[in-house]
Specification:
Among the domains are: 2-67, no CATH class; 74-146, GMP Synthetase, Chain A, domain 3, CATH 3.30.300; 153-214, no CATH class; 218-273, SH3 type barrels. It has helices at 69-96, 127-137, 148-155, 166-169, 179-184, 191-194, 209-217, 283-287, 303-317, 329-342, 375-381, and strands at 2-8, 15-18, 30-35, 38-51, 63-66, 101-107, 113-119, 140-145, 225-228, 231-239, 244-249, 257-260, 265-268. β7, α2 (127-137) and β8 (140-145) form a beta-alpha-beta unit. By secondary structure, it is of the alpha+beta class. The longest helix has 28 residues, at 69-96.
């Protein structure tokens, strides 16, 4: 067993193992580690853990120390330097007339090396650009060409599902994805629907591929000749997730029947001729394949469900649906609303209290709408 800690240098980047050298580290702490590029600052994402020797590439590089306040200041100063170097590099690219798109800039912890990431259609001769940047920034310059998937991982964003990019949040490395996975999962083969923001096939096609491959092994193909509890027939469609198939029976081909995978027996897989001399089993033997559903307790439906069922049954029989409510209150209210929608005036309310003779004449009857004069008469009155 080997004791290791996990360190990540970029958000959503790959996790690297280092030797803690006997010290204890917690998740979220900043550490200074020794790498092939010199000293680097990273975040501990996996505390001290014992792993098998074959799971670790030996020899492990050690952790130099726990990051302190001075190291944090150096990191902030390097971030400001990265912003300035990024802007200078963009100006130099435009000055040299190179067809390349600058994506990101990374400065080493010691500040003696600056790494630029860019995308381009083909090969770019940037030797003159490197010399110009080295004389301006006074550091070692390295330009690295990346693909569109790496560009999306660095820049980040939201996918068509509304969540942040998988490659920028938790994927450490890209998995190979092919159009065959979309066919296996019965997805649309339209490239615009199964492609991500980067223009390549979505990485999430790989997540459920193994489960679909296992389901395909236990599910008959379309146009297979099968035996069912109701007779023999041909498979017309397949539902992999529910493990159900629709079969066109020879006795009733116009109405496909749905069966579970355990209820059928495949005689011929895929398209082809039926076996010569095939004799279908007897009805009793086929009936034994039927899957008997587990008995469920009857649950009393609520009153609203009963009333809806009674209303639907009355409509189907041609009689008017039953009326519900106390003394026809609901029906009367519905009739009043219906009259209002049709434009009829509201019925007069008898319980209107008029003011006494000594009171001010501020009385206005309720539910009285003010009529607007026609447009032409408004102008004449003014």
């Amino acid at each position: 067993m080997t004791e290791i800690i996990g360190v990540r240098f970029r958000s959503g980047g790959k996790q690297y193992y280092f030797d803690p050298s006997g010290a204890e580290f917690q998740t979220g702490q900043g550490v200074i580690v020794d790498t092939s590029r010199g000293l680097e600052y990273g975040i501990c994402v996996l505390k001290n853990t014992q792993v098998e020797d074959e799971n670790v590439v030996q020899p492990l590089r050690p952790v130099v120390r726990l990051a302190g306040p001075e190291d944090e200041k150096i990191v902030e100063r390097n971030q400001e330097r990265e912003k300035r170097a990024f802007q200078i590099c963009q100006e130099k690219i435009a000055a040299h007339g190179l067809e390349m798109k600058l994506v990101d800039c990374e400065c080493s912890f010691e500040g003696n090396k600056i790494l630029f990431f860019f995308t381009a259609e083909g090969r770019v001769d940037f030797r003159a650009l490197v010399k110009d940047l080295a004389g301006t920034l006074h550091a070692r310059i390295e330009l690295r060409q990346i693909g569109v998937r790496d560009e999306a991982k660095m820049l980040g964003g939201l996918g068509i599902c509304g969540r942040p990019f998988c490659c920028g949040s938790f994927l450490e490395e890209f998995q190979p994805v092919s159009i065959k996975m979309a066919k296996t999962q019965n997805l649309s083969l339209n490239p615009t629907k199964i492609s991500g923001t980067c223009g390549r096939l979505m990485c999430c096609l790989k997540y459920e591929q193994e489960a679909y491959e296992d389901l395909v092994k236990h599910t008959p193909k379309v146009e297979s000749f099968v035996e069912t509890p109701d007779g023999v027939g041909t498979v017309s469609s397949v539902n992999l997730l529910r493990q159900q198939v629709q079969v066109r029976l020879d006795d009733a081909p116009e109405t496909p029947q749905c069966y579970h995978n355990c209820e059928i027996c495949v005689v011929r897989s895929g398209k082809g001729k039926r076996p010569e001399g095939y004799v279908p089993p007897s009805r009793e033997e086929l009936e034994k394949r039927r899957k008997i559903p587990e008995p469920t307790e009857a649950v009393e439906s609520p009153t609203s469900t009963n009333s809806l069922a009674a209303a639907l049954e009355a409509v189907f029989q041609g009689s008017p649906p039953p009326q519900y409510g106390e003394q026809g209150e609901n029906s009367e209210g519905r009739s009043q609303n219906r009259r209002r929608r049709r434009g009829f005036p509201r019925p007069k309310q008898q319980s209107q209290e008029k003011p006494e003779n000594g009171a001010k004449n501020n009385y206005r009857p309720q539910n009285r709408r003010r009529r607007r004069p026609p447009r032409g008469k408004e102008n004449q009155g003014e």
